[in-house]
Amino acid sequence: MKKLIFTLALCLVSTGAWAQCNGVFGANTVCGSVAGGIPGQVSTSILTGVPGGSPGQVQFNSAGAFGGLTNAQLTALINPFSSTLSGAVPASGGSSTSLFLNQAGGFTAPPYPVTSVFTRTGAVAATSGDYNAGQITYTPVGTGGVATTDKAVLDRIVWVNDYGAVCDGTTNDATAFQNAINQGQTSGRPVRWIGNCAINSGLSITGSLDFGSFSGGIYTGQSRLTVTSASVLGITVTTANGNPVNFHDFGMQYSPAANAGVAAITITGTASNENSGSVLERLYLNGGIAIGVDFVKASSWRLVNSTIVSSLAASTAIRIANTNNGDSGDNTVYGNLIQQTGGSGVGITWNSSGGTRIENNKILGVTMANGIALSLANGVVTSDIFIDGNSIEGLATSGISVNIVRSGTTGGLNHIVIGHNELGGGQVCVSVPTDANGTWINNINITGNTCQNVNTSSAIGFNINSAVGIVVTNNNYWATGAGTNQVVAIGASATAANCITGFNSQVGTMTASTFGSCTHIAPPP
After folding, report:
1. How far apart are CA 283 and CA 311, in angstroms?
2. Among 24-33, 149-158, 380-389, the least confident range
3. Closest alpha carbon to 476 in 502, 440, 443
4. Which one of 104, 185, 381, 479 is most buried, counting C-beta atoms within 10 A?
5. Rounded to an integer, what distance in angstroms lies between the CA atom of residue 361 and that of residue 306?
6. pLDDT confidence of residue 363
7. CA of residue 247 relative to chain centroid, distance
8. Closest by CA position to 112, among listed 127, 97, 133
9. Which residue intervals of 211-300 are DSSP H helices?
10. What is the 3 state secondary structure string of 302-320?
């Protein structure tokens, strides 16, 4: 820079104003003064001054090096134009009318608003006149690309991090999350976040919303919610008109562990309405959770490809209980890992909700009481329960893989299909105990299952009572205990009509199966 300024100075002044310097200056050093003809300078010599000068000045000093020039002197050295156009840089606070030296030797206005200046530390002090995302446009490549702006692209997603979420796993980010959720519901935009974020109060969703992480967030552990209050329902969906919600790609945990009955995600409705059509996928709800997902007033929902763990004793990973309409269902639980690791609890509890398909899940426990518990709410009449292709393991010695009971004195359940499951451990694989109020199940088909009892006392593979239209056929049974094990027991409280039983194999210590008054069709020899 020093050489550039000095060379410019030599080019802009007459050669007669300079002479060879002697003394402290090195050979070939050119000396001169303002009076020697440097344009635009004051009469003070520029060859003297305090070595080093002050900030913003450049001078020659007695050692032949640069010290300081005043701004006016520096401008005159490098700007040959008239004083009205002078200016090496625009004045602080310039505007769109500020002039800049162009390559043709003239001055033009800049092609953008000039409302920010570089400070001595290099920072930029921006103002509202700067270019913003709404002024930056581009057209997507390829046929049919439509011009848009950066602002339009950024506004397509509501990021919780942009609403003040710190996401350090400790700071309470509940307000940031709720503000982002509210904006997502208002704008119809998806809500996303990155980081392990903590909340100590529950989040509320009252309308349709896409809520989750970026794709893959659950697998990298980069998007998680930690609930720091044991009594807080983590996320509650309350919709008045059945608006669906899509939860996906995030993890959730409680620290400290949740209280009994507290759910990580609760889906409910108003007094006369229920949520319908919601989808929950690729979730990882694990760590201090009592109930993973609680479907209180919900129908036509899907819970798929997720890991749901209840780690509190006597709790349940998934609870299905439509208290708005016990016959409103068409729900699907598919392809999940469902665990009850607290002991004496249940993997999936179904109380009411109409048709529900529980398919291709791994239900794993630590001394679970039931893998799947169908406990019909009092007075409810509904139908179509399919339990197919699941693997149930980790039961208590007295546990039941699929337990079907009626919690009240009235109501009925029709069309139950239990097929092609691996039912392992416990005392009974499928149980419909005797109901003191009579037969309440119509049409139960138990086909193609693998049933294994591992307890050391009496066990029954399929114990069916209080039902009519019973089919128990083509099941494989293993009993590893030393008790009085039997494959099938059709109790006296079962109605004989259309009752067919059969099995493929028996292993272990056995006693004869009992069939009541059913038509018993044994397998071929």
Report:
1. 16
2. 24-33
3. 502
4. 479
5. 10
6. 98
7. 7
8. 97
9. 217-220
10. EEECCEEEECCCCCEEEEE
Angle at 209 between CA 203 and CA 215, to 5 degrees: 95
pLDDT of 261-290, one tens digit each?
A: 999 999 999 888 899 999 999 999 999 999
Sign for the pseudo-dihedral over CA of 143, 148, 149, 151: negative
Q: Are 116 and 91 in contact (CB under 8 A)?
A: no
* Residue 371, C-beta contacts closer than 8 angstroms, at least 6 positions apart: 346, 347, 348, 363, 365, 390, 392, 393, 395, 399, 400, 401, 402, 423
Instruction: Provide DSSP, 247-264.
Output: EEEEEEEESSPPPTT-EE
Q: How far is CA 85 from CA 68, 106, 107, in A?
A: 23, 9, 8
Separation between Cα atoms, residue 505 and residue 489, nearest integer Å: 15
The count of other CB atoms within 10 Å of the CB of residue 180 is 25
Rg (CA), the chain: 40
Q: Is the dihedral of CA 369, 402, 299, 207 positive or negative?
A: positive
The predicted structure's pLDDT at residue 49: 41
**pLDDT exceeding 70 applies to what percent of the chain?**
73
Written as six digits, the tokens of 219 are 């697998």
What sign does the dihedral 107-111-117-122 (CA atoms) show?
A: negative
Contact 481, 453 (CB under 8 A): yes
- Taking alpha carbons only, the member of 464, 469, 504, 471 closest to residue 488 is 464
Query: Cα separation of 154 and 117, whole Å?
Result: 27
Distance CA 247, CA 245 (A): 6
- Report the number of secondary-structure helices (H) and strands (E) in the chain: 5, 40
Q: Please say whether the beta carbons of 196 and 224 come within 8 A.
A: yes
Strands (E), 407-484: 412-419, 422-424, 428-432, 441-447, 450-453, 460-464, 467-479
Does residue 347 sit in helix, strand or coil?
strand
Contacts of 262 (CB under 8 A, 6+ apart): 230, 231, 232, 233, 254, 290, 291
SS (H, E, C) 194-217: CEEEEECCCEEECCCEEEECCCCH
Q: Quick one: tokens of 229?
A: 């209050």
Lowest mean per-residue pLDDT among 5-19, 77-91, 349-363, 379-393 = 5-19
Instruction: Say what the pLDDT of residue 114 is.
Output: 46
Q: Among residues 475, 346, 357, 366, which one has the least CA distance to residue 423?
A: 475
CA angle, 480 then 481 then 486, to 5°: 90
Q: b/e per residue, 258-274, with b = 16+ CB within 10 A?
A: beeebbbbbbbbeeebb
